[in-house]
Amino acid sequence: xxxxxxxxxxxxSAIRADAKEDAQFSPAEGAPGDVAKVLLSAAKSGLxxxxxxxxDPFGHDAVVKEVQAVARTAVHFEVIPGIGxxxxxxxxxxxxxxxxxxxxxxxxxxxxxxxxxAGAAQKGSFAVAVDxxxxxAVRDGLLAAGVEPGVPVGxxxxxxxxxxxxxxxxxDSFVAAALGFTGRVVLTVGAEVGERDALSWWENRPLYGWxxxxxxxxxxxxxxxxxxxxxGAIPCEVPTIAVEPPRTPxxxxxxxxxxxxxxxxxxxxxxxxxxxxVWEKFAEHGLDARHFGGVKIxxxxxxxxxxxxxxxxxxxxxxxxxxxxEGLLAEFSPHDEILxxxxxxxxxxxxxxxxxxxAGLIERGWEVDDVTAYRTVRAAPPPAEIRDAIKxxxxxxxxxxxxxxxxxxxxxxxxxxxxxVVAVIGPKTAETAxxxxxxxxxxxxxxxxxxxxxxLAEYALELRxxxxxxxxxxxxxSKVQGPTALRFR
Length: 489
Hints:
This protein is α/β, with parallel strands linked by helices and 489 residues long. The chain has 21 helices and 17 strands.
């Protein structure tokens, strides 16, 4: 595989590691014929050869020449069309290109037809992708072609990326407005640039540009990070705990045997990790969901319930209110010897879990097998730059999904800065955060990852609305907390 310089790093990082090791993986360098020779050599040796292009392949003269060179051989080839960089980034910037549309990706600004661009600016808008260093040449070309100095212009850097930023000005001032932009930028010119305030959807997402700390286990951070990205945030995953098997497997072995033998009336799962621990032990013994026949399942939290459903079992009890030990106990029926001839409950949980749930079940007349299903071990400290960012306010927000993530993050990296927004998943986590001197800013009604991310997004929108309602002078000196106050524009 060879790739163009404009291909995002996020896309390159998604390529399988073995593909990078087993085949040539490098930037596409040299003349089109040279790149074609590299691809043809790989193809003739039996490999699948790919040239990864930023935008539409046939929108680049060099790539067209490369394809023509390949076409002169007997090697089969395919061209996968894409959206040109100029047109795609214009859409992400909220600038429509109706009517007479020109959207060009150019490597050499001398190839631009400025007279055609001037005509397009009179009838509508156009977009061109150029190097930031060529903006002055583009300005001079537009003015020389007769484009009015006051025509609106937008310049977008890191188009479609996590840090995309668009500045708006006019033809005679956009070079100064875009100082600091580097690499490829997209220039949008015309009346439609004025519609950006209403149509800018990418940069106006609730958490756009927020750097959010995600202290979780490695295995569980992915889903939360994906949701944060959907809201525009830039997540930074910092493993704070590692989940390991119990030191001695005897308890879990007896528990699994008891499930098969009909020893339990209920199994109470308090976390996704507990569900995984039990199912991994089931797998070791060749068991499956059928061996839960006759056993009722209770879960704390929708995420835990989803983990159970993934194995084909529908939980009988999930608290309707607070997703905590107290919330479950409030709805858990006392033991009745007639209705419940089997009076024992299996409670597989972490080694550091509190006794609240077990004690409450015993008070309700149940016998409880309180079993250590897994251990939570503090992870190694993150790199120094991450620790410094945590303590100095380099993160706009932090999401805590359990008390252990609070304790472990503070233990391995230090306490988040006072201006960092703190979001917690539930009341117990909030209590722990407060014990460690943190200010809890937001907490969802339901203890689940989707609701936690939604709560943070709603909090960000509230900050934005408060700031927007302030006069400009007050806004600059505002005491409104949070990163939106710093980013409002």
